[in-house]
Design brief:
By secondary structure, the chain is α+β, with helices and mostly antiparallel strands. It has one domain (11-150, 189-283). 53% of the residues lie in helices and 10% in strands. The chain is built from 13 helices and four strands. It has helices at residues 37-57, 67-71, 98-117, 130-140, 155-170, 174-183, 189-197, 201-220, 230-242, 244-250, 257-266, 268-275, 280-283; strands spanning 11-12, 15-23, 74-82, 87-95. It has a four-stranded antiparallel beta sheet. Strand 1 (11-12) and strand 2 form a beta hairpin. Helix 3 (98-117) crosses helix 9 and helix 5 runs antiparallel to helix 6. It is globular, with a radius of gyration of 21 Å.
Length: 291
């Protein structure tokens, strides 16, 4: 008897979905506090969501790129801890097919997913290889019964249309607006953040300020993800990827020493933790998967 092919995700008008349910580990976390894996996950998500809300809603200057925006294909993403089932849910709506999206997900936000889902049973870290990590995704993915998407626009389309609106508002004539629209291109989130943070000395100082705020919050989580442990390495790798623009700035020898010196004195422990010097297991890039 032939086995029916089960397609767990659904696609509509060029967009697809991914929904996974991963069971949380039982027992207590090996940390400085007596907390469960559920509590640690909830605290982590609270920090991540607070940092994202702060960068989007409380500051017009965004010199540190958003990890989700770096993927460039995600319409929406939700992560929740389900109390009754004791599971972590991830639900994503994205552009394109599952196969192409999952590779970008592993490359761009694999370490972020590591720090969330290392609290679940049987999770395979992204550092253990793309094929094994992808197999874990397939195991915990659930079938979507009904999927609805509001439009046929991609994330790049929305960004392009937004830039067209700005061009028409700023241009002095319809011809100039049309020319600006033709010249417009999709700019990666990392490039946007770099151009914003490196423009002037004042912008660079604001980049350092926002980076230190995020670093302080992430470093506090090291009480729950103990340094020099496997879980601690997971948090450190994720923090380094989240703050890649900030790391490049504070490690630049040409950056104004009058600002870096007091920062190093005040946040020496946090910066030393983030730099992870001599920690090849943390700083070595992951191997690129075979196509």
């Amino acid at each position: 008897m032939r086995t029916d092919l089960l397609v767990k995700g659904k696609s509509l008008t060029g967009s697809s979905d991914l929904t996974i349910f991963a069971p949380l580990k039982k027992g207590l976390v090996p940390s400085l506090e007596a907390v469960s894996y559920k509590t640690r996950t909830e605290r982590l998500l609270r920090v991540l969501n607070g940092g994202r809300a702060s960068s989007h809603e409380f500051s017009l200057h965004r010199p540190i790129s958003d990890s989700v925006e770096r993927v460039g294909r995600i319409h929406s993403v939700r992560v929740a801890v389900l109390e009754a089932e004791s599971k972590v849910m991830l639900a994503v709506t994205f552009d394109g097919t599952w196969e192409s999206y999952i590779r970008i997900l592993w490359q761009k936000v694999g370490t972020l997913l590591d720090v969330i889902f290392c609290n679940t049973e049987g999770y395979v870290l992204s550092t253990e290889g793309f094929d094994r990590w992808c197999a874990w995704i397939d195991r915990v993915q659930v079938e979507t019964g009904f999927f609805y998407n509001t439009h046929g626009l991609t994330v790049a389309d929305v960004d392009y249309l937004r830039r067209q609106v700005v061009a028409h508002c700023e241009a002095g004539s319809p011809a100039a607006a049309a020319l600006a629209a033709v010249r417009s291109r999709v700019v990666p989130a990392e490039e946007v953040a770099y151009s914003v943070g490196q423009t002037t000395t004042l912008n660079a100082v604001d980049t350092v300020r926002q980076g230190l705020q995020a670093l302080t919050q992430l470093f506090r989580l090291s009480d729950l993800y103990l340094p020099d442990t496997p879980d601690g390495d997971v948090l450190l790798r994720a923090s380094r990827d989240l703050l890649c623009e900030f790391r490049a700035l504070v490690d630049d020898p040409d950056v104004f020493p009058d600002v870096i010196r007091p920062i190093t004195l005040r946040f020496g422990r946090q910066l030393a933790w983030l730099r992870a010097r001599g920690r090849a297991a943390v700083t070595t890039p992951r191997a690129t998967p075979q196509l």
